[in-house]
Amino acid sequence: MRTLPADHDDSEAPARLPPDDYCEGAADFFDLDHKMVSSSERASTLKQLAGEIDQWKKSRTYFGKPSPDSLVLVMPEGYGKSHLVIDLIKRGFKVVFCAKSHAQLDEKEFGFRHQYDLNVKRFRSKRQNFRSQLELLGIPPNDFKFAETATINPYAMPKVKQQESIRALDDLFVKHSCAHNAEDFFQEHYVEFVPDIMNPLLNDADVTLITFASFQAVTAIYKTSWWKGLGLIEKIIPANEDTGKPEKKIPFKKIAIIYDDPDRSDVDWLRPITQEELEKLKEINDRLAAREDKTESPEYWQDEAFAHADLLAAQHKALQDIRRSLPHHKIIEHKNTCYLERPVGLRIGNHLKGGSVTPAVIVTTTEWLTGYYALQTLKRSDLNPHDHLDLFHSVECKVTSISTTITRKQNHAVLLPIIELLKEEFPDEDVTLIANALGCELNLSNNKGRNDLTGKTSIIKLSWPHPSVNATIGAHFSDVEKPDYDLMIATELADLGNQALGRNQGFRFKGRQAIMLIDPKYYGKIISNNLLRYQLTPWSSKLPKYNKKTSKKSALAALSFSAEQSPLERRLLELISQFESFGLSADAQRVAERLPERQRQHFDAWLAEHADAAANARRAAKDDANRARVAKNVRHHRTKKKNSLCLGE
Predict the structure, then answer these.
(1) What is the dihedral of CA 236, 242, 245, 250, to 10 degrees?
(2) Its domain of life (predicted)?
(3) CB under 8 Å, gap of 24 or more: what pairs does 603-608 form?
(4) Nearest residue to 297 via CA among 316, 324, 271
(5) Is residue 574 part of a domain?
(6) Running DSSP on this structure, what letter comes out for residue 113?
(7) 103-146, pLDDT tens digit by residue?
């Protein structure tokens, strides 16, 4: 266990920067070095970073080279990114704060406005305005789903089907006995809605709040004058009728764009695409190209601009020649799978450089992989990225980590009645489950940015990622020689785990527990490589290496017990160690009655499979087949190893 040195000085600002080749060769990316960080160090680091960003904007140089236009901050959960916003505003910056969801922006708006007394303006999209209007009618916004066009391009934003959406709205109004006309309501609050962000009275705001999707749309529409779309205008020079000069809008000199805690899918540059989708994409591109090719002919412009038909045709031919010289969609193949490179227009930071203003683009994340993806994408947007990693171990709390197969798909539904029973037996703990694929209110993505979980005891499930997710991570590191794919996947899981743990641990720690359930396949990699940012309790379990002599029963028995454990931890371990028999018990079925419908369906499906004799026989046969396959692979490996040793002799 690491401890602070006796001569540790809280007033010193730490600065552990990554290796010089971090951006180019990701091999050293996984060579992590944690440290202990105090609250004063945290504040000092953020203040120092704000000063560096300000200096970059002033001097335009950094160690004799052009200063960075963008910065990636990999920082612990609860580090206090709001303080960075305050420090930038004190240095004269106007800040555009982007988050993934409106729920996260609601929380930030309250904090900036009431805790820090900042002038805040909020960009509301058509969709958000529409949902807000439904809420005013007493209709839960989540009850309505926009009808959308299916997209072939995995990066494309689906378009709203208006007539189908209106029909869905009409059904919703009937369900809630609402007297409004669905078509008129949709037309007024969605089609005709225009954000009032350009209101001159709002231009004195310190912070503009906006979602990633809305900011991407604004920058794509306005391109080099995106700041006009957000009202980031310092002054307006009126038009001069005498000289004929038009009205001129001057942007603020210093603008900072903060992308707060994006998912990897928000900043990645590769996504898998099937052959069928590729063919459809090519077909659409060919149709669009054929339509554009017609503009190369003077005949196309005869009716619209007869006098300039030849000039317009020549201009469009020059544009089409550029278009034909570049692939419309770049395809990368890795291990027999095709990946589509994110189009230029949809990359974070695109359209921000050039024009009248180049902002400081800052990506803040708690995740190592997301930080790496963001660096590479910003490089592709020609934003000259710089990075700062601040890795630490919490000095205030300890986390219990448990290796257990209950995290796996065939078992995880039993967690639902276990959590319900813990809520019943420990009402003061306010137990919360954070997990994917179980219909939980909180999952490993939407827990980001939440500050309201500090008073809750959290139980977090980390299971195997989907194979396609693993393969995509491998494709992003395809240029690394002999990469450790298991370590990459373990890092991905640790990223998700650290994010969820940070809701009530580390800088947010207020005495509540956090217990992490990790699949045995990745538990060893995560723990041995020190990927979790939190000190583990001594009774955190470490299963023996799996082999044919290690049965499921002995693996579960490895879950250790200690007199120092809290009653909740002890009870949880007891239930996990016998999860199958508990799941079939009357107690489990009793507490499952109060589960939400979607979660109840998960548990009922597990119950039907495990309570049925025929299903049990099929499962036993499948387990026998798997054991036989593993034994065969072990024999093959041993024979191969023995033969190689003989050849060596």
Answers:
(1) -20
(2) Bacteria
(3) 603/413, 603/414, 603/416, 603/417, 605/413, 606/410, 606/411, 606/413, 606/414, 607/583
(4) 316
(5) yes
(6) I
(7) 888 889 999 999 899 999 998 888 889 989 999 999 988 889 99
What are the Cα distances from residue 569, in Å, to 426, 513, 517? Answer: 11, 9, 12
Residue 11's pLDDT is: 31
3-state helix, strand, coil in the chain (%, to 5): 50, 15, 35
Check: CB of residue 369 under 8 Å from CB of residue 492.
yes
517: Cβ contacts below 8 Å, ≥ 6 apart: 402, 404, 406, 407, 415, 459, 460, 461, 462, 576
In a shared domain, residues 434 and 479:
yes
Q: Bigger pLDDT: 615 or 209?
A: 209
Which residue has tokens 């099937």? 274
Q: How many helices (H) and strands (E) does the chain have?
A: 22, 21
Give the whole-angstrom CA distance, residue 600 versus residue 37: 43
Q: How many Cα atoms sit within 13 Å of 426 on the Cβ side?
A: 19
Report helix, strand or coil for 436: coil
Whole-number average pLDDT of the chain = 82
Query: What SS3 class is residue 320?
Result: helix
Residue 324 CB: number of other CB atoms within 10 A?
Answer: 12
Task: Look up the domain containing 648 and give its range.
Answer: 612-649
Q: In degrees rounded to 5, what are phi and psi of residue 589?
A: -70, -30
Whether residue 488 sits in one domain with residue 373: no
Q: Quick one: 453 and 582 in the same domain?
A: yes
Q: Is the pLDDT of residue 316 over 90?
A: no
- Four-point Cα dihedral 72, 37, 44, 447, nearest 10: 50
- Residue 394, both tokens: 């919490």
Kind and range of the H or E run holding 215: helix 212-222
Q: How much is the pLDDT for 30?
A: 45
> In the listed set 194, 216, 245, which residue is the last one of a domain according to the structure?
194
The answer to whether the CB of 81 falls within 8 A of the CB of 364 is yes
Do 482 and 423 fall within a single domain? yes
Lowest mean pLDDT among 100-104, 517-521, 585-589: 100-104
Q: Are residues 199 and 261 in the same domain?
A: yes
Residue 474 has pLDDT above 90, yes or no: no
Tokens at 106, concatenated: 């609601």
